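Key idea: predict the complex, not the pieces.
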Amino acid sequence: MTTNTELTESSKAALAPTDTLNMTDTQHNNLSYRDAFFLVLKRDITIALRHRDDIINPLLFFVIVVTLFPLGIGPEAKTLSRIAPGIIWVAALLATLLSLDRLFKSDYGDGSLEQMLLSPHPVFLLVLAKIVAHWLITGLPLIFIAPLLAVLLHLNEQSYGALIFTLLLGTPVLSLLGAVGVALTVGIKKGGVLLSLLVLPLYIPVLIFATSAIDTASIGLPYSGQLAIIAALFFGSLTLAPFAVGAALKVSTN
Amino acid sequence: MWKWLHPYANPEVSYHFTGRLLPWFSALAAILLSVGLVWALLFAPADYQQGDSFRIFYIHVPAASLSMGIYFGMAIAALCSLVWQLKLADASAAAMAPVGAVFTAIALLTGSAWGKPMWGTWWIWDARLTSELILLFLYLGVIALHSAFEDKNLAGKAAGILTLVGSINLPIIKYSVEWWNTLHQGSTVSKLGKPSMSLEMLWPFLFCFLGFAMLVAVIVCYRFRNEILARNSIRPWVRDLVSAQANHK
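Result:
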């Protein structure tokens, strides 16, 4: 029963951007790019808020993975604070990976993705809106929880700023690059494992620069250089990834 | 130039064209490799520091540079297929991917076999080794994505997009890994660096390098022809080809 109502809800919400199809040409022009962007964004967030598990489960995964490391390695504060940046970032990568599936899967399943691709608005914009929604739902909560986990791992106090800034700049890159992988695998039945194989190698630069920024901050040196590179990765993927996602979605929906 | 190129977009024409190229590539590969390897492994002077164990260099370096060259070739093919919708470009990218993966694996294995006597360890997180390993992951990703689709046309397009994304990312990964290594750990092992080679060492190396490149060309041609046949198996010219061959026997 619940699944039924959820489905109708999501398809109702899915109708929002596709309403444009029924409009006349003059009305098309009324729906500006900005409106289209915010419609998709609002729709995705609405759907996500109705499935709270999808938001909470990756977060729980993030917390549990981070707690496993002290158990596996040992409770010494010195070791933990040395490896804390790496653990937090690797866990963030995996949590993002876990949540990527819901980016296009349900829309692909109920056909609203194809409607979106058929709509008169640029695919770039709609895809970007979906990715932004994904980041707001999964990336942003990670940033709120990360300081708490940093306390558990005895992260050096000087590094907190760096941790927050790298997550703030880095997690959008994860969502953007991940979207390319999801868009490529959304049509495949068992795409989950394949997705990690495709996406994780692409995440390596973010991981390297983020952890090195946190490490640098922990010895009290300026880390603006690393941040600048992560920002460059962010803007690069922000401008290029939605094109790749659009092309990939067209392949996947055929 | 387009007028000169466009016949090769026809599968039949390029099937026969690669068929004519194959003997040349094979002969060149056989000659170059047999001369080059014998020269390199038996007659080239031993390195004054590394002795005979440096001779693996003659296999390792060609494999490593070809592994990157093949990825570059795949990226070009993927771009052509996306921009001009050339189906044969997809076929050639599909033909190249496993060859590139194998050469990457050869480079990694020979590298670690070389590293054991030289550096005293099978593996170090050296920047070059790491980026070669990541290149292998990218290759495997492309191959896995390609085999996940049942429709070969879709598979080619999807793998093409991934190849292009990877080709943008590859330089970034390479430089970030280099940066990471120099930042995280001091150079415990000073990189061997390219020894300024004497001519007696350089010549066999060139032979080996060209020989391996020709070997790649041979294998890629074979795989490309197979891809063409597999994708066009319903076409009359393929049927004619098969029945002609059957009659010949």
